[in-house]
Amino acid sequence: MRKILIKYKKSKLHYFVEKHQKYAPILFFIAGFTWDSLTLGRIDRLYDIVILCTYMTLLTISIYLYNLVGSEKWDNKFVQKYGHYLPLAIQFFLGGLSSAYVIYFSRSVSLSKTATFFFILILLFIANEFLRKRISNKYLQFGFYFFVNFIFLSFFLPVILKKMNTVIFLVSGVLSLISTLCLIILIYKSSISAQTEIVKWKMLSMIMSIYILINSLYFLKLIPPVPLALDQGLVAYNIQKIGATYKVTYEVDKWYLFWRDHKADFNKQTNKPVYVFTSVFAPTDLKKKIYHRWKWFDENLDDWQTVDKIGYEIVGGRDNGFRGFTYKNNVRAGEWKVEVITEEELVLGVVDFNINIHSNAKAEKLITRTF
């Protein structure tokens, strides 16, 4: 092994790495995101669970070992010899976790409702690129760690317990708080630098502030209800359930409006209903009641009015989501949206459209898809 290391240090590869080492953090950052984008799929898949648990475990170990560097107890041992690689390891695992959160939450996010939290995730993801130079800051280390730990447990526990509700979210927060504080205490007792740099009340205040922030975002309904995710949302002219399949007839939009499957303008005939079809992904065996909350924009009041709230229970496990639909006959012309929400009124997504009512109205580009 020693001969290999000596040979490596004399090689052109080692010279190249040393010369361009300032670019290493961003390469690790990109590597973590690229790897997750290519490999992460279902949040309840064994591979995904193992990967995220591994990231969380190795991040914890890396932070612990990094804080032991410089201690006389570890002179001439593994920690001292390879301690300068630990910031890169920490950055890789933080990059892996934060990119996974961006991937999972982007599948569930409704930007009209949860943009604040999603923006925080994006900032966290980007800020990781600049973390290496400031990794020695204990407050940054543990603040970052607590945030990713909290988010990890908030969707990991529902996947394992097959349940999702406010109590489980609160339990996730308490467990992440306890585990983070235990790590801080362990490092504080083992590291002289931690005892010098950490002011106890400041550290506790920071951790509690992050704890209160995440809980506040949850109760303000600004956090997407991961592990649930809205796979499909369409306003349709007709829906037929034939056996285990749904035949959905809807009008497609212009080809360049690639982000929208259905046409926003819905030409409703006076004697025909308006359908909204959704498919919601949920982890295997997770049962949850969701609702379609129909809203109409009242121009006189300049506000959205709730017209109806229709619920049905979903059962997780299907790759393309649990399918369901609701419909209404008596609707007014104007702007409409159907919010897909949980019992706790967390928003999975929004299907928005504009209704035009004519006795002989006709859609031009109707297609029928099987789901």
TrEMBL record:
Keyword Transmembrane helix tagged: yes
Pfam families cross-referenced by the UniProt entry: DUF2914
Domain DUF2914: 288-355
Transmembrane segments: 21-43, 49-70, 82-104, 110-130, 142-161, 167-189, 201-220
Annotated keywords: Membrane, Transmembrane, Transmembrane helix
InterPro entries, per database record: DUF2914
Protein name: DUF2914 domain-containing protein
Organism: Polaribacter vadi
Lineage summary: Bacteria, Pseudomonadati, Bacteroidota, Flavobacteriia, Flavobacteriales
